[in-house]
Amino acid sequence: MSATLTDVLPLAPDEQALGRDEPGWLADLRRAGLSVYRARGLPTVKVEAWKYTSLSGLTKIPYVLDDGGVALSEGGDRDALALDDAWTVTLVNGRPVGVPDELPDSVRVDHLSRLLEDEPETLEPHLGRIADLADAPMGSLNAAHMTEGLVILVDDGVVLDRPIHVVSVTEAADGARHMHPRHFVVLGEAADVTLVESRVCAPGADATLSNAVQEIRLGERARLRHLRLVASGEEAVDLDLTEAEVGAEAAYEAFTLTLGGRLVRNETRARLRGSGAAARLRGAYGVCCGQHVDTTLVVDHAVPDTTSDQLYKGVVDAQGRAVFQGKIIVRRDAQRSDGGQLHKALLLAPDAEVDTKPELEIYADDVKCGHGATVGDLDRDQVFYLMARGIPEAEARALLVEAFLDDVVGAVPDGPLRAAFLGAVRRWQAGRHAATWEA
Amino acid sequence: MALLDIKELHATIDEDDGAKAILKGIDLTIRPGEVHAVMGPNGAGKSTLSNVIAGRPGYTVTQGSVTYDGADLLEMEADERARAGLFLAFQYPVEIPGVATATFLKTAINARRKAAGEPEIEALDFLKLMKSTSKRLGVPEDMLKRPVNVGFSGGEKKRVEVLQMAMLEPRLCVLDETDSGLDIDALKVVADGVNALRAPDRGMLVITHYQRLLDYIVPDVVHVLADGRIVKTGDKTLAQELEAKGYAEFTGAAA
To answer: Which residues form the ABC transporter domain (chain B) (predicted)?
Structure first.
């Protein structure tokens, strides 16, 4: 029967083998995941949370489950952010390769597979307990499949003076692979960490489907700066669901820069669970040439006295499509919540498209919440002013695009980190112009 | 050879309800070293003339020619014109949030150098040039760290226009109503800056409604523009005459 189901429902695992030789709680997690995925199937635009992004096209690609065994190729990580001063760990097709040396004892960076095998009890309080995947078909599929990923556990009070840099590389394998990495970041009380992620693609490794889930838990007064570059391959489908549970007085500060991938969905959910918790979700994207980039944000003000803000800016060029869905939930008791949302998009070509869907669900009465959205083209007068000073049009437009993104990229700490992200924006712009000139 | 040679220039402005004729046959020749003033009442076509020379989109030349240094200016894009040595000081300098003034200046200088096959300006040389020029024009240095024209007063904007002009060393300067919105002190500073740029190989076209600016930037030739045509040409005394009598004589004639 399971074989038939697999035929009907692509990407699903074999039910018979599910959870075999695993602790009961883990097997339950997998079965629950499979049953949600079975009930909902691949999301299509009929599902509100996927209103503008359909995955039904994935059935046309004969993906096979990645079983590892692929090594990092020479230069496969060339598009990663250039960060010299960082603890770097590389993942190939969602599987960690080694762990950084010289980490302090108070920080543990390990492979999910190792913990699942040797000490599942360490994972039990976190795995599947942070992210609520009951309404997330792809996240649920991840739960059914997950075997690998990165685990980062940081003790109370640890303040890291260098970032941890996760370089996640997609490498070519036989045929198109699908993979379901599951990552964890758990910060103890008052821990303070900068986590940088580069999601990149080795040359020639395009047709992959990555369906990742990241679970993040921040203890009281902890602070996580989560900075991400998404530069997936031209044919890559890159789905990521990140759920952060933010404790009292803790802060989750995310910045996501998406510049590559055929179909990308970055879904970030922040649940503010303690008084004084804060979430700042910022990001920028550059989309063109048949790409589809979906940013879906959900901030859940679950208790009183929490703050959040969402600021995203994007640039869409010829034949690109961007989606921005931003939701703010304020629970009944969550008085004095302060939530804001702003999304601004630049459309650089007539066939560029952006779909914006802000949603406020407010059940408390003493709250401060607002949202705004703008869509526009570059200012003609600004372009002319720069050209009147001798700056060629393409360069003038690139300068104005960078200026448009300036305040949101400013969310990245000044210094080498911001320079690395700005460098990625500039490379994207240079590549985009090269493409335009060729055409 | 003339630096700028305008012959029988007719131009229209593109509007939603069709093209509207603004320039109706302009003849004007500027030789190197000369400063010409174009004066005229509102609506005469002064800004259109400067915009057509600079290559601003939204205008169509329907007849005539503009030759700059022997080349057909109308065949060049706005940025090519600028790199060839043309500079328009804007009546309303444009604000560009997110682009620091210093970055903008450096990009402009390097665009010109690149086109000339020269290497980019050394960071230190650029800083020196910017410092000395801003000091001379009374532009506080911290202003150059701020985004282009954002939050600048009217006087500051005009000063920064002249600063750009000084740093880019153009061969032909077109000043479009540079005096508008300036108080007398700012006017003097701006005029001093412009006068410092007067040179035997450089021409200037100063466009203004009022004679006041011409007390400080004394022109060699004054033209009166009315209803899209140059209706009178004379020396600097013509400006004083206009100040006394106004434009009534010309607007009447044009009607």
So the answer is: 4-252
Q: Is the ipTM of this complex over 0.85?
A: yes
Beta-carbon separation of B77 and A384 below 8 A: no
Question: Given this model, what pLDDT does residue A3 score?
Answer: 37
* CATH number (domain holding residue B215): 3.40.50.300
Question: What are the E-state strand segments in B101-255?
Answer: 147-148, 172-176, 203-208, 221-226, 229-234
Task: Tokens for A110, please give them.
Answer: 């390990």
Smallest Cβ distance to B108: which of A382, A390, A406? Answer: A390
Measured between alpha carbons, how far is A208 from A93 in angstroms, rounded to an integer? Answer: 9
Strand partners, B204: B35, B173
Contacts of B185 (CB under 8 A, 6+ apart): none
Task: Measure the CA–CA gap between B113 and A340, rounded to whole angstroms.
Answer: 45
pLDDT at B185: 86
CA angle B157, B201, B118 (to 5 degrees): 75
Q: In this model, does residue A213 exceed pLDDT 70?
A: yes
Distances (CA, A) of A252 to A222, A312, A342, A399, B116: 8, 16, 18, 31, 50
* Interface contact flag, A403 B77, Cβ < 8 Å: no
CA distances (Å), B101 to each of B61, B97, B146, B150, in order? Answer: 33, 10, 6, 9
Q: How many domains does chain B fold into? A: 1
Tell me, yes or no, if A386 comes closer than 8 A to chain B by beta carbon: yes
Tokens, residue A274: 């303690």
B contact test, residue of A385, A404, A422, A429 with most B CBs within 10 A:
A385
Query: Whole domain around residue B36: which residue ranges?
Result: 4-254
Cβ count within 10 A of residue A295: 25
Name the residue with higher pLDDT: A34 or B183.
A34
Tens of pLDDT, residue by residue over B141-194, are 899 999 999 999 988 999 999 999 999 999 999 999 998 888 888 899 889 999
pLDDT above 90: percentage of residues in chain A: 82
Its sign, for the CA torsion B217, B223, B224, B225, is negative
Cβ atoms of residues B184 and B194 within 8 Å? no
More confident residue, A233 or A110: A110
Contacts B108 to A, Cβ<8 Å? 386, 389-391
Count the Cβ atoms, other than its own, within 10 Å of residue A253: 18
Question: From the CA atom positions of chain A, what is the Rg in Å?
Answer: 21
- Confirm if A92 and A70 have CB atoms less than 8 A apart: yes
Q: Of the candidates A269, A12, A211, A234, which has an alpha carbon nearest to the alpha carbon of residue A93?
A: A211
What's phi and psi for A336, nearest 5 deg? 60, 30
